[in-house]
């Protein structure tokens, strides 16, 4: 995007003043499983969390800690979600945050805690707490790749993006690291995503920008239609770029939102591509809906349809599953106006099925990106969601995951 430069090999330490480290604390065998992200100065902070009514202990703790819109450190473990663990789980999350605060000599309320992994097992609190001093001692500006790896569960690759742009002549950077491959469903963000920026931005601007970016990206993806209990998207803005204050409106705010949204969308697509067992990225665009909500409903219905996902996986042009999904979405449209396109080929238009393009579609469905377009011709609203196919590998991964 014009005025926004993607940084090659950028990490969450690209913005000024951020250090990280990651180690193995014993939750997982011989793999990085504990990471710490630290701003050398206290930062303004905001978060967006899972809409699931069953929320993990660290999510509840972070919501409480962000009431003052500030944070300085994030500690994250993989291999254990600390969810469905009741009062003990919340107390364990607090104890981890307290230890981090003591070691870094910062306020406990300025430590955010995140967990990902198995639900329903108590957090191995002692293993984590006993490792925090070593973890903090190793904080550096060049260990972000280790942090990205330590967050992973069923991910097949780590995910980081960084960009830079100028505000009144001052260089500003935004970066993010994410993990996610399963339990990904629209209506929040992803499983875990941490954003760092050296931008000087108001609290109201930061919160508004994060919400807009999430709606544009992480709220528009679906891997399996299951919503995680631990979904967390947080941002730390430490102001070290020294730019003029970005408020919650105006051209500088718009530029910041665009940069943040660009990062979030790229990470969101990475998550879909890395979906458990996935082999194809599916872009679903619903146009001409009566309302924005109806466009979203139709797109989500298609993205979460097991029949559509397996059709794509099998490279089988059984396109009838697409209008069937639209019809099941509970939205207002007339079938005689409905148009469906698969790989930009019209397959169903105004009650007339395609009968000529099967061989061409079979060839096009072998591609790695599949485009589905639905025109409802009932209004002016549209919505795009990114999903993936469903393969036997997804079943294998999730029957063996424990």
CATH superfamily of the largest domain: L-amino peptidase D-ALA esterase/amidase
Oligomer: single chain
Give the topology string: H per helix, E per strand.
EEEHEHEHHHEEEHEHEHHHEEEHEEH
Helix content estimate: 25-40%
Instruction: List unreliable stretches of 5+ residues.
Output: 182-190
**CA radius of gyration:** 22 Å
User: What structural category arises from helix and sheet content?
Assistant: alpha+beta
Q: How much beta, percentage-wise?
A: 25-35%
The total tally of domains equals 2
Mean pLDDT: 92
CATH architecture of the largest domain: 4-Layer Sandwich
In CATH, the topology of the largest domain is named L-amino peptidase D-ALA esterase/amidase
Number of distinct helices: 12
Biggest pleated sheet: 9 strands, mixed
């Amino acid at each position: 995007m014009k005025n926004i430069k993607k940084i090659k090999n950028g990490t969450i330490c690209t913005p000024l003043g951020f250090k990280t480290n990651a180690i193995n604390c014993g939750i997982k065998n011989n793999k990085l499983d504990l990471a710490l992200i630290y701003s050398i100065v206290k930062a303004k902070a905001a978060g967006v969390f899972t809409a699931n009514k069953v929320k993990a202990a660290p999510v509840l703790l972070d919501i409480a800690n962000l009431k003052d819109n500030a944070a300085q450190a994030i500690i994250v473990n993989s291999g254990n979600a600390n969810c469905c663990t009741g009062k003990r789980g919340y107390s364990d999350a607090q104890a981890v945050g307290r230890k981090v605060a003591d070691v870094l000599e910062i306020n406990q309320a300025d430590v955010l805690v995140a967990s990902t992994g198995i639900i329903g097992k108590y957090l191995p609190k002692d293993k984590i707490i006993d490792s925090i001093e070593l973890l903090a001692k190793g904080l550096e500006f060049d260990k972000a790749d280790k942090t990205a790896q330590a967050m992973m569960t069923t991910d097949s690759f780590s995910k980081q993006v960084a960009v830079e742009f100028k505000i009144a002549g001052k260089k500003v950077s935004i970066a993010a690291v994410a993990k996610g491959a399963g339990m990904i469903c629209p209506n929040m963000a992803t499983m875990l995503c941490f954003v760092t920026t050296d931008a000087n931005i108001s609290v109201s601007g930061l919160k508004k920008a994060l919400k807009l970016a999430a709606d544009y990206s992480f709220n528009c993806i679906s891997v399996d239609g299951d919503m995680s209990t631990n979904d967390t998207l947080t941002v730390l803005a430490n102001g070290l770029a020294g730019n003029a204050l970005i408020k919650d409106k105006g051209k500088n705010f718009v530029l910041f939102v665009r940069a943040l949204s660009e990062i979030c969308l790229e990470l969101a697509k990475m998550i879909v591509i890395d979906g458990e067992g996935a082999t194809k990225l599916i872009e679903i665009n619903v146009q001409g809906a009566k309302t924005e909500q109806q466009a979203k409903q139709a797109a989500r219905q298609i993205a979460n349809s097991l029949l559509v996902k397996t059709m794509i996986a099998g490279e089988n042009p059984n396109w009838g599953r697409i209008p069937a999904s639209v019809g099941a979405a509970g939205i207002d449209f007339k079938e005689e106006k409905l148009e469906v396109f698969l790989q930009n080929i019209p397959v169903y238009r105004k009650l007339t099925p395609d009968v000529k393009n099967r061989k061409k579609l079979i060839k096009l469905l072998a591609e790695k990106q599949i485009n589905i377009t639905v025109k409802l011709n009932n209004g002016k609203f549209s919505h795009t969601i990114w999903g993936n196919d469903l393969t036997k590998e997804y079943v294998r991964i999730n029957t063996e995951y424990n």
